[in-house]
């Protein structure tokens, strides 16, 4: 009896968007209009690449970025929830699937001593170049028309579950915790026994209820959360069963 918990990162584990938070390092804490307006839908990773070049050009160094990123607040109740999961690791496998990047997630989780809670993190690979600039790449290539060019979370989830099955690990239930539009694709992949937990008032919750109204609801159960304590209450019930 093992459960898989799948977490988004931005606006789910942390209460902000890590990619927009880094702008606090920019001169006057803002980006020039030309750069801001250069974003094209579905191409966020390329846009962030340009943001990192701008920060590097303005002499923003790794240690300053790290200091800034580790001030991001966690979502209400999240530290308690992750502590609870950490104490019950024999029951829960726990992964992150995020459109952030490896450097940001690593910094934030390690600063809070929470990295051991997660078995794997699937996100865009990032690294500092020899000249001290942060660079970011696409997580993978995929053919899903619904998702941004660099990441289809359904593909990540499906491949992870397949790989676990090959190792002889199958899950009683998958619990997917997220907030954004790009979390809908993996939620639609969930089975009847699984649970989607969209954050209250965010895009994912709205998209799931639109599907229900158009009579093509998701297969899985849906439980809305506003604090991570709501998620913890559900997990406590789950392991009591």
Automatic annotation (TrEMBL):
Entry cofactors: Mg(2+)
Catalytic residues of the enzyme: 8 (nucleophile), 10 (proton donor)
Sorted UniProt keywords: Hydrolase, Magnesium, Metal-binding
Molecular function in Gene Ontology: metal ion binding; phosphatase activity
Residue sites binding substrate per the record: 19, 99
Pfam families noted in UniProt: Put_Phosphatase
Superkingdom as given in the UniProt entry: Eukaryota
Positions of Mg(2+) binding: 8, 10, 179
Tagged with keyword Metal-binding: yes
Family per record: Belongs to the HAD-like hydrolase superfamily. PHOSPHO family.
Protein name: PHOP2 phosphatase
Organism this protein belongs to: Zosterops hypoxanthus
Gene: Phospho2
């Amino acid at each position: 009896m093992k459960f898989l918990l799948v977490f988004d990162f931005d606006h789910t584990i942390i209460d902000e968007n890590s990619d927009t938070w880094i702008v606090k390092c920019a001169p006057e804490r803002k980006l020039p209009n030309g750069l801001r307006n250069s974003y094209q839908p579905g191409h966020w990773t390329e846009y962030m690449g340009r943001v990192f070049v701008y920060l590097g050009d303005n002499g923003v160094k790794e240690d300053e970025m790290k200091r800034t990123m580790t001030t991001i607040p966690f979502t209400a109740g999240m530290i308690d929830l992750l502590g609870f999961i950490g104490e019950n690791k024999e029951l829960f496998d726990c992964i992150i699937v995020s459109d952030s990047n490896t450097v940001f997630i690593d910094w934030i989780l390690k600063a809070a001593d929470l990295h051991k809670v997660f078995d794997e993190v699937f996100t865009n690979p990032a690294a500092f170049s020899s000249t001290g600039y942060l660079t970011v790449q696409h997580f993978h290539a995929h053919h899903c028309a619904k998702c941004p060019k660099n990441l289809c979370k359904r593909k990540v989830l499906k491949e992870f579950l397949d790989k676990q099955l090959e190792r002889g690990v199958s899950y009683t239930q998958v619990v997917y915790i997220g907030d954004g539009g790009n979390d809908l694709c993996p939620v639609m992949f969930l089975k009847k026994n699984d649970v989607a937990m969209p954050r209250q008032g965010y895009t994912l919750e709205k998209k799931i209820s639109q599907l229900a109204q158009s009579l093509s609801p998701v297969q899985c159960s849906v439980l809305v959360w506003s604090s991570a304590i709501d998620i913890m209450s559900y997990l406590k019930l789950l392991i009591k069963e």
